[in-house]
Design brief:
The protein has eight helices and seven strands; from the N terminus they run βαβααβαβαββααβα. With 190 residues, the chain is an alpha/beta fold.
Length: 190
């Protein structure tokens, strides 16, 4: 059984961080925290809404404050934390969480992640999109092919950052949540 105290899960949107984090916390019989859910609870807005309405500086300050509080409150305890996909761009938040535990990169294939994003997206009659992440939507893709190309660039850049931060990388497949959790347990040696 692993003696690691805390696991901080990170990865691209729709990689399964929250789902795997809940499974892991249940398995370890410890507390689970989802940074995006804490943002929602504290502000009454989803992380995406808060970011859109308040901008990146305010969003990152809130995200950092949450990560600092988690670290101050739970350092030395066994907990599991699921981060938002953009945590890798928030160096102060990363620094706080590094003091809490190990970073686990939930690595999903580009195709799987993009398929999951596009499944929730909808092209509106005025040519805009609903449900796309801001980093795609802000570039105003004309069609799904363009949206996928934008995602591909973003995925490549983010993958490099996640790999540089991660203590442990867990490649997940386009498989059931339970199958991916078995792989997570195997890689973490728990």
């Amino acid at each position: 059984m692993s003696t690691d105290k805390a696991y901080i899960l990170m990865g691209i949107k729709h990689s399964g961080k929250s789902t795997q984090g809940r499974f892991l916390a249940d398995y370890l019989k410890c507390l689970f925290f989802d940074v995006d859910e804490i943002i929602q609870k504290n502000t009454g807005k989803s992380a995406r809404e808060y970011y859109t309405e308040n901008g990146p500086v305010a969003f990152m300050a809130l995200e950092e404050a949450i990560c600092e509080k988690l670290t101050l409150t739970y350092k030395g305890q066994q907990v599991v934390v699921s981060t938002g996909g953009g945590i890798c761009d928030n160096a102060p938040a990363i620094t706080h969480l590094r003091n809490l535990g190990k970073f686990v990169y939930i690595q999903v294939s580009e195709e799987t992640a993009c398929d999951r994003i596009m499944k929730k997206a909808m092209r509106l009659s005025d040519g805009t999109w609903k449900g796309l992440p801001a980093y795609i939507n802000n570039r105003k893709p004309a069609n799904e092919k363009e949206a996928r190309e934008i995602f591909s660039e973003f995925y490549a850049a983010r993958t490099e950052i996640y790999e540089n931060i991660a203590d442990i990388t867990i490649p997940v497949k386009n498989a059931s949540k339970e199958e991916n959790f078995e792989e997570l347990k195997k890689v973490l040696s728990i």
